[in-house]
Amino acid sequence: MEFGIVGLGRMGGNMARRLARKGIKIAVNNRSHEVSEAIAAETGHLACVSLPDLVAALQTPRIVWLMLPAGEATEAALTTLMPLLSAGDLVVDGANAYYKDDQRRAALMAARQIAYADAGVSGGVWGLDNGYCIMFGGSDAAAARLKPCMVALAPTPATGWLHSGPVGSGHF
Prior knowledge:
The chain has 7 helices and 8 strands, in the order βαβαβαβαβαβαβαβ. The protein starts with a strand and ends in a 7-residue tail after the last strand. The protein has 172 residues and is of the alpha/beta class. The chain has an 8-stranded mixed beta sheet, with helices on both faces.
């Protein structure tokens, strides 16, 4: 597996469930490991105790999708993740972040040859059954890598998701 979700609250947890329904197995991590274990038992995903465990469980090139609150929680996760990731990996911030923070983070990641995308995710608890609307910013290469996940998370393969342009445009 090459894909992991960090943050299994209402949206992140249901995104993990929707991916499982579409036959996509991922690694999951949550601050409360019991949540990771419960979702793994339900979906067949791999529960990881920590961010280093999640990164180690994923084959390169990895995609690590953060579904954490914007601000301090996201910054702390990125600070922990950055030295663990490898060139060619991709980080997606699904929080409700400020687009200039995304641009700053993307520059830090680019210095390590790690791609970054920002994703505005809408759908709430209903996204599990109805699909999520996702607008994301990032490079064309990042968009191509994310397409299978976007198709699985969206209401239909052709609707509900949009590559809106460069980093920052997903949260703008």
